[in-house]
Design brief:
The protein starts with 13 loop residues before the first helix and ends in a 10-residue tail after the last helix. The chain has two domains: 14-150, nmb1532 protein domain like (Four Helix Bundle (Hemerythrin (Met), subunit A), Up-down Bundle); 166-214, no CATH class. Helix 1 packs antiparallel against helix 4. The protein has seven helices and no strands. The protein is globular and about 60 Å long. The chain is an all-alpha fold. It has helices at residues 14-33, 40-75, 80-111, 114-149, 152-164, 171-179, 198-210.
């Protein structure tokens, strides 16, 4: 184990990000189910939202794959390796599920048929519980390890690298999505100036996607 010096990572923002993913992915099956057959305009709106969430999740997992798992494996005791390898395998499984969802999404958009909508809905129904299980285990097992083996500077660098892969125009929306279930500013300090616009950005987006500026909040 490397002899690293604190201060160590403050991981308190991670559960807030997970809460956003739980809420938004949890709402997807019903969102898809409510699209009427042949309503191409509405299906495009919903599809764009699914793709956006998929990109956010891919970015989130990429940050962990590149910056978090290697440090934990290098610095942690032997008991760290099994849970890290489980996280890696879950990321791979979730990536495969997301790929399935995106494939079905494309077929649904081409046909706008009710049977393709149902197939897409089934793919989402399989994805959501796996994602929730993964995030809960990460909060229970990984975040305490990060607070022991990853420095605050390294954690901040991981967050900043993830933020750098996001379009600047999307940052207020993403912040608003995360802040919606409670809490103030989130993300690296350089984006905090955008926090005032975040609730408005999410309210406008949610009204377009969910039909209301106040969609159901996360049930955990």
């Amino acid at each position: 184990m490397s002899n690293i010096q604190g201060p160590f990572a403050d991981t308190s923002d991670m559960p807030r990000v997970h809460t956003m993913f739980r809420r938004e992915f949890g709402l997807l099956p019903a969102l898809v189910d409510r699209v009427r057959a042949a309503d191409r305009a509405r299906s495009r709106i919903v599809a764009d939202h699914v793709e956006f969430l998929g990109q956010l999740l891919e970015n989130h997992h990429q940050s962990e794959d590149e910056s978090l798992w290697p440090k934990l494996l290098l610095r942690g005791h032997e008991e760290v390796a099994p849970v890290v390898h489980l996280m890696e395998s879950q990321h791979q499984r979730l990536a495969a599920n997301i790929a399935e969802v995106l494939t079905e999404l494309g077929a649904w958009l081409v046909s706008a048929a009710s049977e393709r909508r149902e197939t897409l809905g089934s793919a989402l129904e399989r994805l959501v519980p796996l994602l929730k299980e993964h995030m809960s285990l990460e909060e229970e097992r990984i975040l305490p390890l990060a607070e022991r083996y990853v420095t605050a500077a390294e954690w901040a660098e991981m967050v900043q690298k993830g933020a750098a892969r996001v379009r600047l125009d999307d940052i207020p929306l993403i912040m608003g999505m995360i802040m919606y279930d409670g809490g103030g500013e989130i993300g690296p300090p350089e984006v905090h100036a955008l926090a005032d616009a975040a609730p408005r950005a999410f309210a406008s987006y949610a009204k377009r996607v969910h039909g209301t500026a106040t969609p159901p909040r996360s049930a955990g």
